[in-house]
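Researcher: Final request for today, and then I'll write up notes for the group meeting. The sequence and the SMILES for pyridoxal-5'-phosphate follow.
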Amino acid sequence: MQFYRHGLSGADAKAIADVLDTPFLTSGSVGKKVEAMLCAFFETPHALLVNSWTNGALAALLAMDIGPGDEVIVPAQTFIATANMVELVGAKPVFVDVDADTLLLTPAAAAAAVTARTKACIPVHMYGLMCDIKGLRAALPASVRIIEDCAHCFEGTRNGELSGRHSDMAIFSFYATKNVTCGEGGAIVLRDPDLYATLQQTRLHGMSAIAADRFKSGQYRHWDMGRLGVKANLPDLLAALLPGQIETIRARLPARTALADRYRDAFANLPIRLQRLDPDCVSAEHLFPIHVKPAVRDAAIAALNAAGVPVTVNYRSVPTLTYYREKYGYGPKDFPNSWAWGEGEISLPLWPGMPDEDQAKVIETIKTAVVPLCR
Ligand SMILES: Cc1ncc(COP(=O)(O)O)c(C=O)c1O
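Model: Predicted protein-pyridoxal-5'-phosphate complex:
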């Protein structure tokens, strides 16, 4: 049984072969086409492809001039990248506990963490369920930038709206397991033309022109460097895998939803916790997390693995990890909801095309091998 299987196949090699016929293997016309598709999909004037969510966030924080002495609010329950990029630019990630049921950062909790040093907030759409970004915008001072972490949520909506509507920018991941993937990659969508212009530079060493533009119309043009940046551009070789997926992503969501609903129905009356959905949201159902008592989590993982069911943990709460614990002295009591969830979470296999009999086996194993541990 597979935990995850992407939807790409040998047929997608044609798109890569076509790039081999163009002069630039790196960022060029294919990437520009994908960026235009992203602008149309998210109804934003600007989109930039990046080579990972992580490097995109680094470029974004540099573009916002966030650094030493600044604070950035992040949820305590997320993947480490969300907080690590804040650390890397020398700012302080200010962790905030998530809601115990939705596992999302709430506007009220974020607002309570604001200080005179707060420059930004990075809400995370955990497992595909969107945070209330409109509410967050209203709750935070206007000077605090909002960067949506959409690594789990490309196609999800809240009140019918996609990501990027109420924030300063939304950053996506096209990592190998994401709903839209090119192995490694990502994208940023945004509205502000000045921020876009700066981001174009911080995405590429702070340079004033990308390689394809430096050689436009056979005439070499000098470039300048006005600020520091990272190397975060996505090569056309990988961007070529994205158009087909962006075109079909909406049509592929019902398959994910059906799998997730089947899990939810099967586990409804069992002694395991599930993420509480929000009726205002359509989840992108990126992952299917369950939660068992922390004391039995590892035994439950062992039982699932022994039955041939592959699982992962997404994620142990970030402040409980050694680096953050040792640097800031955090303990389990600091962010109790995030800690409790992170110590008991198990993600189950879910991907469009997952065979029915595989899902039946996962459900059966939960009932016969995991539930007895929980009683
Ligand atoms: C919530 C979250 N944020 C950020 C990232 C980082 O994404 P990438 O691997 O594209 O850098 C991930 C990756 O799994 C993630 O789950």
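Model: The mean pLDDT is 96. The first strand starts at residue 46 and ends at 50.
Researcher: Thanks, that's everything.
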